Amino acid sequence: MTESNRIDYYPTHEHEGIKFRRGHSLPFGATMVANGVNFSIFSSAATACTLVLFERGADQPFAEIPFPDEFRIGNVYSMTVFELDYERLEYGYRMDGPFDPGQGYRFDKSVILSDPYAKVIGGRDTWLAKPNWDNVYPYRSRLAFEDFDWENDHPLETPAEDLIVYEMHVRGFTQHPSSGVKNPGTFSAIRAKIPYLKELGINCIELLPIYEFDEWENSRPSPTTGEVLVNFWGYSTVNFFSPKAGYAATGKFGMQVDELKTLIKELHKNGIEVMLDVVFNHTAEGDQRGHTISFRGIDNKTYYMLTPEGYYFNFSGTGNTLNCNNPVVRNMVLDCLRYWAADYHIDGFRFDLASILGRSADGTPLSNPPLLESLAYDPILAKCKLVAEAWDAGGLYQVGSFPAYGRWAEWNGKYRDTMRKFLKGDPGLVSEMIQRLIGSPDMYSQRGPTASINFITCHDGFTLYDMFAYNNKHNEANGENNNDGANDNNSWNCGWEGETDDPDINFLRHKQLKNALTLLMVSQGVPMILMGDEVGRTQKGNNNTYCQDNELNWLDWSAKETNADIFNFARRIIRFRHDHPVLRSPVHFRYWDYVGSGYPDISFHGTKAWSVDQSASSRAFAFLLDGDHAKEGIVKDVMVYVAVNMYWEGLHFELPGLPAEKKWYLVSNTDVPAPNDSFDGGKEPLLENQHEFLVGARSTVVLIGK
Amino acid sequence: MSFHILSEAKKIAKITLVGEIDSLSAREFQKEIEKLATGSPDELILYVENLTFISSAGLRVLIFAKQKMGTNLAIYIVKPQESVLETLEKTGLQHSVNIVDQYL
Fold first, then answer.
1. CA–CA dist A341, A178 (Å, integer)
2. A182, A248, A266 ranked by CB distance to B92: nearest
3. Which residue of A142, A149, A182, A264 to mutate against B (max B Cβ within 10 Å)?
């Protein structure tokens, strides 16, 4: 049977010269079908629905087709429209129904609404191109070709313990003039920088939100510079299925889907996974004062958590809260993630303020949240990494207790806090440091170390360099009187607030940065680095740069040379992690010798071998990993010894004895200036003194025994 | 801008593309490819010096050509303008075709 023999190949109705017929209820969204486009949209309370069709960029629609009553099945309106130009078409809906906010209804048929299932959104096609503020339909649903030529690509499924995650902002990564790429700030430009990621040793990039958002949202002039402040980070979703057009060099041609898929395919070819930071906790529609873009006008009561009076719950801190455990919304989230996994070959997802996903419609935390369970057991997402930011702005803090179903990992906020406090010299943290370094078994006893995404910095807060250059946040440029951003930074400026010419302070800052990178790379679990920390990127003390589209957020590529010591150290310590499976255990340590090597899998030490000082004043410890126990004894590795001294004076560490045939070699010593602060694999120098090592003040030393 | 196709089907198939390839003209392009595919050419030469734009639908015809005529088919894109070249690069198509200044 050919397509033209099918009954549904031919229209049955006509309106304003447009031919159409009854559509298919599933799938939701706009789907290219033989000879036409199938439109399908849900609304539980609308009294009527109209499909609105535009020629691309036109001020006014060329057709508005009311759905005949018989085209509605249940709460779903569907219609197939014929002879449309797939590439030139923009479409939306008008929903009629009651406007009664007290009852949760906010229908307004004068507004043209985006399709929640649109695969492309037009209207913000080029980053910060000035929009037409009088546009009757600013965020326009479009069609996407979904027949990308993936050849033999598929998600990499790298074991989680082997990942080095690099948290990246698409625009921030290459927008700086020093990047030297052809189309700065785009997906295409990331592709040009793959060699850099490989040189650094990254095998997973985690992209800050790339769902379509409006960079102009809440834009305003900076009080300090006068330049326009924008929504740079993008944690304000306009549409969940559409990639941000302004991040594509081809966005102006509507080819962002192809450009992003090409990037992912190329990253996969180079062994680099792609994780997305996804924001399902709220949308860009804000609270009752916000603009109606889509969900609010389609089915306000279904899509949002509402108070009994019809106001928006604000567990996200941004005005509204997506009603994730409503079955319809839950299915949308599931459809969305399946789409990104199946059609974009995405390797994993990090869920922003994920605790919201575990709340019921009235905000109560659920013990068995259906959405989280559905995601954990979904067949298409089965091999995807699922990572929770396990807290929300409503006070729910679930680090260590996020409903995991054996699948979910967490951004380990306790790891971050402990590392920061210890690095700045707080005493009494040795026992907690040990827990964090060995994969936080006190928090993830069942899930194993890979449940812990270890990080010291992320986009939200100070950069690693600023951690050691500022005691306090300096957010004046954000125009909120320095009231925004966190105050509990646990940072230490090393003796001077901000930039200084003092060589001792600058040396200490670099040393602290290297200490932090070392701790991150020798920790069990999954390490995550913030973009630019490998070259000492600074935000000049701003710990909340959500609105800064400028050098505060753009990676300055010249820092690779000016801070070459940091970059080379980062590159080597990352390589060290890759080279040594004993640092990447898929399971927790057992603290005994179960392979008969004569050493336990892990042992703890201090200035005295086999004895660790965990007292309230202690700031130093060491640990020894036995290579014969690597990956549960399946592979052979060297012995790895790590000594950490955050005391303000150097300390002599007695080294644990090695088997007779083995000797100690130096991998890294942050107390020594570059280039002798670290060594490439195979070039580690033999220690002259095999029994003791003087670990300098606020320093970290890594040795291997082989 | 107008869109023209001139073609001859031998072992080497040649098409000249002029103007813009959008979703409508891509259909014509695809029909021509289907016609040429019956001759099982070894090489497909696309003269694109006067092509100013190629859309997603146009790119897909290139992939379609490979699938229709076999993966051994060599596609030559002759003298693309900068804008067309950039589109091919950013969408990864440059790996699947040979971009040349002239076809000898």
1. 33
2. A266
3. A149
Please give the ipTM for the structure prediction: 0.85
A86/B23 touch (CB, cutoff 8 Å), yes or no: yes
Does residue B24 or residue A551 have the better pLDDT? A551
Active site residue A343: no
pLDDT > 80? residue A93: yes
Q: For chain B, give every domain's residue range.
A: 4-100
| pLDDT at residue B2 greater than cutoff 80 | no
Contact residues, chain A, for B86 at CB < 8 Å: 182, 249
Distance (Å) from the alpha carbon of B64 to chain A's nearest alpha carbon: 10
A49-71 in b/e form (b: 16+ CB < 10 A) is bbbbbbeeeeeebebbbebeeeb
Q: Which two three-digit tokens encode residue A216?
A: 């102009």
pLDDT of B40 reads 85
* Topology of domain B4-100, CATH: Transcription Regulator spoIIAA (3.30.750)
What domains, with CATH codes, occur in chain A? 3-142 (2.60.40.10), 590-705 (2.60.40.1180)
Is omega for the bond preceding A675 within 30 degrees of 0, making it cis? yes
Query: Is B56 in CB contact (< 8 Å) with chain A?
Result: yes
pLDDT band at A470 (very low <50, low <70, confident <90, very high): very high
pLDDT at A1 over 70: no
The alpha-carbon gap from B13 to the nearest alpha carbon of chain A, in Å, equals 23
Cα A699 to Cα A424, A456, A507: the distances in Å are 12, 17, 12
Spatial contact of A272 and A199, defined as CB atoms under 8 Å apart: no
Q: How sure is the predictor about B1, in pLDDT bands with cuts at 50, 70 and 90?
A: very low
C-alpha distance from B85 to closest chain A C-alpha (Å): 12
Closest residue on chain B to A267 (Cα)? B92
Q: Locate the chain B residue with the closest alpha carbon to A190.
A: B90
Sign of torsion over alpha carbons A121, A123, A129, A130: negative
Residue tagged active-site, from A115, A212, A214, A352 = A352
Residue type, B100: V
pLDDT, tens only, A55-86: 999 999 999 999 999 999 999 999 999 999 99
Please confirm, yes or no, whether A352 is among the known catalytic residues: yes
Task: Evaluate if residue B10 carries a pLDDT over 80.
Answer: no
